[in-house]
Design brief:
Layout: E1 5-9, E2 17-22, E3 26-29, H1 36-43, H2 58-74, E4 80-85, E5 91-98, E6 111-116, H3 125-141, E7 145-151, H4 155-163, E8 167-168, E9 173-174, E10 186-193
Antiparallel strand pairs: 1-2, 2-3, 3-4, 4-5, 5-6, 7-10, 8-10, 9-10
Organism: Xenorhabdus thuongxuanensis
GO molecular function: acyltransferase activity, transferring groups other than amino-acyl groups
Keywords: Transferase
Amino acid sequence: MINQKRKATLDNQGGAVVVELETERLWLRAWKAEDREPFFRLSSNPDVMEFFPDILTKAQSDTFIDNCIRKFETQGGWGLWAVELKQSGEFIGSVGLNVPNIKFPFSPFVEIGWRLDKPFWGQGYTYEAARRIFDFAFTEIGLEEVVAFTTVSNYRSESAMKKLGMVRDEKTFLHPGLEENHPLREHVLYRLRRSDFV
């Protein structure tokens, strides 16, 4: 795997400096204005958003990207990156690290998350990007642990977490951002410690 790192300044977006990461097939990079339309397309796709509370409107999708850009500044240049195929330059989704704004039963923590457009599922892109992000999180940020979580019925995402070497907590938890009777409220939690990353 290529371990190159580059930095990019977000023009007209607060001037935050973003650490950009490279893998064999991908750039994990700063968000661009032209990412907004394809990100909205994937975030309004019911298949992609099956295990999220709802599909996003254009305004919600843009707000998500705006929040990602702000967090690059507050989190020191890392966050939820836009993912680009190196070969074609095509935007395929987002993968990265996040510190949630709401309190969870296991706070404080840094989570890894991903959202790729459906045509790019099943090709190893999530695994490839996440491995590079774990390496960055443990060796360059110095984190001791990264977590991931999803609703109990999202077996596809759980499979990715297991493949990445993450270990599931025995107990489930109720997502504090979802209302009491929401069908997706019960979540599983996976962890990866720096000492277990190989």
